[in-house]
Design brief:
Elements lengths: L6 E5 L3 H13 L3 E5 L2 H11 L3 E5 L7 H8 L7 E6 L4 H10 L3 E4 L7 H28 L1 H9 L4 E6 L2 E5 L1 H6 L4 H4 L10 H15 L7 E7 L5 E13 L2 E10 L1 H28 L4 H15 L4 E8 L2 E9 L12 H15 L6 E4 L6 E9 L2 E10 L5 H60 L1 H18 L4 H27 L7 E4 H14 L8 E6 L6 E4 L1 H18 L5 E11 L2 E9 L7 H6 L15 H11 L3 E6 L5 E8 L23 E3 L2
Helix pairs in contact: 2-3, 5-6, 10-11, 11-13, 13-15, 14-15, 16-17, 17-19
């Protein structure tokens, strides 16, 4: 009975690799000897004589290939396996040519190492036994030697002048022929057509004594046309005074197929990991779904992918990527037809299996449906198109992805609902704070009205008699004028404060737009203001009977505030434009009133705070004018917008209702407004 593999030498300059391999082998009850370099490995082989040596190809000092060459000079019994960091066929052949028994790719799962080494050890024992028996048999008789050759697992052949002179039973079985059918024929007849010329040239050079590899791979064909990947070892001998080639063939077809399957599996796992990373990094539901469909088509290799989610009982195609090779209608406009066909199937799958494939049509590939299930309910489904029927592994990956996608979608929807609830709560909190501030402002206004207005009235009533009695001149006249101006400014502050704090009850009625603008123009003429010769230009873009549904007094007050601010911001010879034009927004009629100036404009920081109470950049201002304007506009179910950039002036746009029936939640909109062009008229400033 063959002895079990007991002692293994692990030689690698990477301590992590040594410990990883050693740990796996130790758990399999093997004694492990470690060597960090080539010199130590060679010494350990001589002193400890392990059953098998696992040698890294690249090590300091002696590399793995040199160790193999030296060890084969004094020890033919030890099994030698080289480690490589990548599946390099040339490195493998070089190692085999040097005397290695096998190789192991570090990229393969380390869990497969013990079984691999046991297989190498068993094969090595057989080869050692064969070699010793063959040596003994050769001394005893040629017949005994032939019997041994017939019972080995590898194929054995003998060539002379390119003709096959001997094959053992195993090689004949590989080719699905008898030895009698093979012997006497040229060896290239059994080589795959694409490799015949190369193998023939190598054989001829070898017979001429030229340096050729003694270990190589080739493909042999059996009688049924099957192809076998072979690892061939050859040597030149002398037979009856002529050169001949003696060689062995090892069928590595299954081994290579397994490695290919493992490589494909690793590649698919890597692709799935990349896809999951892209999905997890997505921000927002739409970005998440787009990442899924793009990833399914690019990473998992499907021709097309789409995601349907249920919204108010209706399935909607929210994302798709790729394009099928056939004319299958999978574009968004065909979504209803797709839902009618596949949604019942997805619902049926919810309680049974997580995947199904269905032919799209003759020669048109295959659709696969994957329901999105959460808490026992179908929230949607993923539909993929494949040029060929997807394998079990592919559909398993997609089913796993859809299971995780269901969780992500639910969590994202919960997060969005939470954010919406928080926003509503924050808005309600802000309204409560604002209401509290307004209540406090109202109380303060009452105090101001009582405590400030009365002294101001006394001051104003006293200034007139003082001027008549004293008839001041010089400094006295200047001081009394300053008292009057400051009292007037203080009275304006009190007036603005009371207007802002007082509840605004707009008495709305229909008024012609031209009447509203005309009253505003006349009021501006009669209001004294500081500055130069700024003028007001009114631009009309409405029909003669165009009306606006407002409290004319309040809207006129808002327009006057805006125009006075515009005059203050404009240069001495500047122009302020008051523009009116109709608009239809959301099916409702509005009048758009615009006040534009040619001033210095506002920075983004100032523009963001322009409507805040008590915020002002004017040393003589109260900071309540624009706040009052917004309050008036919003009391009319309207809205106000501000556009301004440094150096480009400022434009205030008021949107006011033209009729009585309006939604209560109107909001500002941007874009062009419908207009009826009319000649402009100007009013002097």
């Amino acid at each position: 009975m063959d002895r079990q593999l007991q002692t293994v030498l692990v030689a690698d300059d990477d301590p992590d690799v040594r410990l990883l391999f050693g740990d796996v082998l130790t758990r399999e009850r093997m004694e492990v000897v470690y060597a960090p370099g080539g010199g130590e490995a060679l010494q350990a082989i001589q002193e400890r004589q392990p059953d098998l040596a696992l040698l890294d190809v690249q090590m300091p000092g002696l590399d793995g290939l040199e160790i193999v060459r030296q060890v084969r000079g004094f020890n033919l019994d030890i099994a030698l396996v080289v480690l490589t960091g990548h599946n390099d066929r040339e490195t493998m052949l070089t190692a085999m040519n040097a005397g290695a028994d096998d190789f192991f790719d570090k990229a393969l799962p380390v869990s497969s190492l013990p079984e691999r080494l046991r297989a190498v050890w068993i094969s090595k024992q057989a080869h050692n036994r064969l070699r010793r028996d063959a040596e003994r048999s050769l001394r005893e008789s040629e017949q005994r030697y032939r019997m041994l050759l017939e019972n080995v697992d590898d194929g054995i052949f003998l060539l002379q002048d390119g003709v096959i002179h001997f094959v053992n039973k195993r090689l004949a079985e590989m080719l699905s022929r008898t030895a009698e059918e093979i012997i006497g024929r040229h060896h290239t007849e059994y080589i795959a057509p694409e490799m015949r010329e190369l193998i023939s040239e190598r054989h001829q050079r070898r017979m001429r004594g030229e340096d050729e590899p003694t270990v190589y791979t080739t493909r042999l064909m059996d009688v049924r046309g099957g192809v076998h990947e072979m690892l061939v070892r050859v040597g030149v001998i002398e037979l009856q005074g002529k050169l001949a080639v003696l060689g062995t063939c090892t069928d590595i077809t299954a081994k290579l197929e397994e490695e290919k399957r493992e490589a494909r599996r690793v590649e698919r796992i890597t692709a799935m990991n990349r896809l999951l990373q892209q999905v997890m990094a997505s921000d927002g539901l739409q970005n998440l779904l787009d990442a899924v469909t793009r990833g399914i088509t690019s990473e998992l290799g499907t021709g097309w992918a789409g995601v349907w989610l249920k919204d108010d009982g209706t399935y909607k195609l929210l994302s798709h990527a790729g394009s099928p090779a056939s004319d299958i209608p999978v574009d968004p406009e065909f979504a209803p037809a797709m839902v009618r066909h596949y949604e019942p199937l997805a619902r049926a799958l919810a309680e049974k299996v997580h995947r199904v494939a269905q032919p799209a049509g003759p020669g048109q590939g295959v659709f696969a449906v994957f329901p999105l299930i959460r808490s026992g309910q179908a929230m949607g489904f993923v539909l993929t198109w494949h040029a060929e029927a997807p394998g079990e592994y592919d559909t398993g990956q997609l089913a796993s992805l859809c299971f995780q996608l269901s969780t992500l979608i639910e969590n994202m929807k919960l997060a969005e609902d939470l954010r919406a609830s928080y926003a509503e709560l924050k808005s309600a909190q802000d309204e409560l704070i604002k209401a509290g501030k307004m209540a406090a402002l109202g109380e303060m206004s009452a105090i101001v009205a009582h405590e400030v207005r009365n002294p101001l009235a006394v001051i104003f009533n006293s200034l007139g008699p003082l001027n008549r009695i004293l008839k001041p001149q010089g400094d006295a006249e200047m001081l009394l004028r300053i008292i009057n101006e400051e009292a007037t400014r203080l009275n304006r502050l009190v007036t603005d404060l009371l207007d802002f704090a007082r509840p605004l009850a707009a008495q709305r009625r229909q008024i012609l737009a031209q009447d509203l603008l005309g009253r505003t123009s006349e009021a501006i003429r009669n209001i004294p203001r500081n500055g130069g010769g700024q003028r007001l230009e009114i631009q009309n873009y409405y029909a003669e009977n165009a009306a606006v549904y407002v409290d004319a007094h309040f809207i006129q007050q808002a327009l006057i505030n805006l125009i006075l601010n515009a005059f203050s911001a404009s240069p001495p010879d500047g122009k302020v434009i008051l523009r009116a034009e109709p608009a239809v927004v959301g099916g409702y009629d509005y009048m758009i009133l615009t006040v534009s100036d040619q001033g210095a404009g506002m920075t983004p920081e100032v523009r963001a705070r322009a409507f805040e109470p008590f915020f002002t950049t004017n040393a003589l201002g109260t900071g309540l004018g624009l706040s009052l304007v917004r309050k008036i506009v919003e009391a009319h179910d309207g809205s106000i917008e501000l556009e301004s950039e440094p150096g480009k002036g400022a434009t205030f746009r008021l949107r006011l209702p033209s009729g009585e029936t309006l939604p209560r939640d109107v909001r500002p909109v941007s874009g062009k407004y419908a207009s009826l062009p009319r000649p402009s008229i100007s009013s002097p400033g």
